[in-house]
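Q&A log
Question type: sequence-to-structure
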Amino acid sequence: MISVTGLDELLTLAGRDLGHSSWIEITQERVDTFADATGDHQWIHVDAERARGGPFGTTIAHGYLTLSLVIPLFGELLAIDGVRMGINYGLDKVRFPNPVKVGAKIRLAARVAAVTEVPGNGVQLDLDFTVEIDGADKPACVARVIYRQYA
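Response status: OK
Response body:
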């Protein structure tokens, strides 16, 4: 894990590779809980019997579940101290090139694409995130994520 303190140290991170998080397994219970929380009960996610005959041979995680998991995984890569507040400012581009089958393990790889100062005593981090699937050639998700930190 990389640790920084304050906005000045954040500004030095541009272009830095933040490495990889630990692997986490995508369980059917996690997928079902996400389906309940979002109301998205499409059979490819929650009906194991039907999904066995479907295009993936098993149930798969929702793309937005995969995307939401970057939050705890990113917490393993970068610790930011000495700021008043951090916010998720948004996403520039998100793609889901490969489904995550239930039982698969995923991890996050991150790189700081850009760091810029923002009005109001803040810093914006543009981060390139790649959610990798253990043993797969193509990632589950690639995204440009934007966070802002304020002192």
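Response note: The longest helix spans residues 28-38.
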